[in-house]
Amino acid sequence: MPDTASETGAAVAPPDAIRRSDGATIAYHYTPGKSPGIVFLTGFKSDMTGDKARALEAFARARGQSFLRFDYTGHGASSGRFEDGTIGQWADDAVFVLDRLTAGPQVLVGSSMGGWLMLLAALKRPGRVVGLVGTAAAPDFTEDLLMGAFDAEQKAALMRNGFVPVPNCYDEEPYVITRRLIEEGRRHLLLHAAIPIAIPVRLIHGTDDRDVPWQTSIRLAEKIESQDIEITLVKNGDHRLSAPKDLERLCAVVGRLLDQLNAAP
Fold it and tell me: Does the predicted model carry a pTM greater than 0.85?
């Protein structure tokens, strides 16, 4: 399963919020700075107070780069119920904050489900997104990692009741996977065809990831049309990749990408 909310820490200050036209509010923290900016996209049922988001924020401040972290609707400090969310809605949240809260070129960093959403956002805003970094990226997880793992009884319950509880190894409360999440997710599947993204892409994945197999990053690299793709496989690395050395690696990868973009003519 993609990233979870257990990877959290206390926020230094309460977040700001921006209201969408449908009345939903998106909570966020924004650090002004130079371009390209960095936008962090969290994982499934995670939030913007996690270790990776905070480490990248500190890294961006040290470099003087602009940085944005935010919560999708139904996550963290944003409005809405998690169970009502879909992949399309959360991708729209990402595009909304990209449009309303950032300016100029941006590098999107996506963790787990955020790795799927960063791709969808890049496809919708090709002129704004200039680089992508995925850590344990989980495109198509609703189909490949949820439906693909459900047994006959779980599938029947999903169709009959509209939802099915799934054990959560990071929390005592199970995930509630809705039929709507699965069916709407099929409209956004990416790994079945070429992905028309031509910008630099960096992917980091642990070889001991029990939630999203490292082979997913290999498949993703094969599908993306960009010729500038690098994959870092972390031996014995888990799904969360949030140990100090993992956070240092993530920041270093983002830093090298920013340096490359700055050096480009």
Answer: yes
